[in-house]
Write a structure and sequence with these properties.
The complex is a heterodimer of chains A (about 425) and B (about 170).
Chain A lengths: L2 H36 L19 H12 L12 H19 L3 E8 L2 E6 L6 H9 L2 H11 L3 H32 L4 H7 L3 E2 L3 E2 L2 H4 L1 H14 L11 H4 L9 H26 L10 H6 L1 H26 L12 H29 L3 H33 L5 H30 L2
Antiparallel strand pairs in A: 1-2, 3-4
Helix pairs in contact in A: 1-11, 1-15, 3-4, 3-5, 3-11, 5-6, 6-9, 6-16, 9-11, 9-16, 11-15, 13-14
Chain B lengths: L1 H22 L3 H21 L3 H26 L12 H25 L12 H8 L4 H22 L8 H5 L1
Helix pairs in contact in B: 1-2, 2-3
The chains are: A mainly alpha (about 425), B mainly alpha (about 170).
Chain lengths: ~425, ~170
Amino acid sequence: MSTASILVSVASFVLGALLALLTIPVLVWLERRIASLVQDRLGPNRTNVFGFRLGGVVQSFADVVKLLLKEEYYPGHIKMGRWLFMLAPVITFSAALLAFMAIPFADTLQIDGEALRVQALPIDFGVLWYLAIGAIGVLGVIFGGWLSHNKYALLGAARAGSMVVSYELPLGLSILSFIITYNTIDFNAMVQWQSGTFFGFLPAWGILVQPLASIVLIVALFAETNRNPFTVAEGESEIVAGYMTEHTAMKFAMYFMGEYVAMNTASAVIITVIFGGYQIPWVSTEMMLENFSAFAVVMMVSVPVIVGLLIKWMRKNNTVRPTVSTDGGRNFETKVLTIALLSMTALIEVILLYLVFVADSALANSITVMLFQIVVFVVKLMMFNIFFILIRWTVPRFRYDQVQHLGWYYLLPLSLLNLFITAIIVVGVNP
Amino acid sequence: MLEVSIFAILALFMLGGSIAMITSKQTVFSAFGFLVTMIGLGGMFALLNSQFLAIAQIMVSVGAVVILSMLTILTVNAKEENLPKEPHKYKWIMFSILLVTPFTILLYKTLIILPDHFSTIGTINAKVVGKLLFSEWVLPFEILSILLLSAMVGAIVIARKKRKRPGKKERRA
């Protein structure tokens, strides 16, 4: 193990952990803000630290403090198995967290002829890892629901379990048709396959190559992560809070955060398998490395434009109504953030100029491309998380029998049919 | 040394899990013991550098077996007082341990000489397993799938609602 490989593996592990954990407060905030915007109101935007609101993200930290300081209430009727009752949310949370670790954040880094994976867990069977570890998460739900000794919790746990059983099959079968198409079980190789073109001009993304399997995959992942319209396991209009009914304070928060981590993982899997992962369409990693100066010029032009638009949007929106006398430090915050964003842009420009005109090292170029790919990955990840949230606040919840009906009568036959067609086409094209 | 300590930890988990599975009265804790044992077994396979077997172990045993048995436990939802009384449980366990010990020693002696008779493959990944399954072991593989198919058909036949044949009186009516 060289120093470079140790550095890259530690850095990608830290990046994976941060991406999984730090997105939780952002996602909670996004959920509340988007729900508010869908319902024509503003949502949490008042909480601040020294005048810094960041659009309201600070609210999430207040939520965390609230959940930590809440009374740890313990239902008196739970006689045996308290330890498992406490452990159950941790199982759900850690399974979702571990499943995220197999996602590649950027293409393989070549240092001195050594191929280093930018992946928290450098494994080449990521699909199997996701399917295996992701399935453990529901066990926490079932254990917690059973040990609550409560009819609602029991119903919620039974619903979660049977939903996972019925949606694991279409999920596995649709992923199987992707495995046949891409001829790999490695997430990174899947992304590399998708950097080509399809029919000569379309990007070879999974959603264009395998539209049916993509739809089945997205629907099955919505059901696996217990998001609307499949929230039957915690349907509060029917069974109080489902499996979470008897869990309080941090135990509840673990389930709650586990749901967001699972949603994040599901978005990461969706973009990796069917939306080209960390790639932007038509441009592969080799192309960026070969034409590095063109890439740098495009970046030098586009970064200031994006940052300028962001600053304009912030100046327009981070204000109070003219009738309100004090602005509560909003102008100050806008000023500080503008300066920070502008200096960051200047730094990026200087670094890119240095790389193009002064330094001529392949290593620095590939690290720059890697950072760019990580940014693309995070942007795509957030877009899909927003998609998940928007679906939650636009589509009403299915009835339980409708969920089962959809899984067994439509998704399973569709994915089987798609698997059959895929196998025939793949064998027919490359005999 | 690292490998030995990982092995020791995994073995402790597996032993504890399997003992908990046998001795606990409430089925939920048995299921949890089984879960711990299976994850430990997956870890053992990973320690032997066969990643595919490790992941397949977790996928099949945890993702299918434990979840389905948990669904059964949820459906039955047995109360503490309805569980069967087992007064001589530990005596029976001791007796069966004594009964099985000679066979275990025999099995150990057989297994310990097995590696000399088989060629070892560096890493066992999905490709190696798939190629072996569809070349050398294709006949046992297909026979196993027929066995599973017949089990599935049997389950469907048992679960199907019995249609009453219309009796003579009904036919007249």
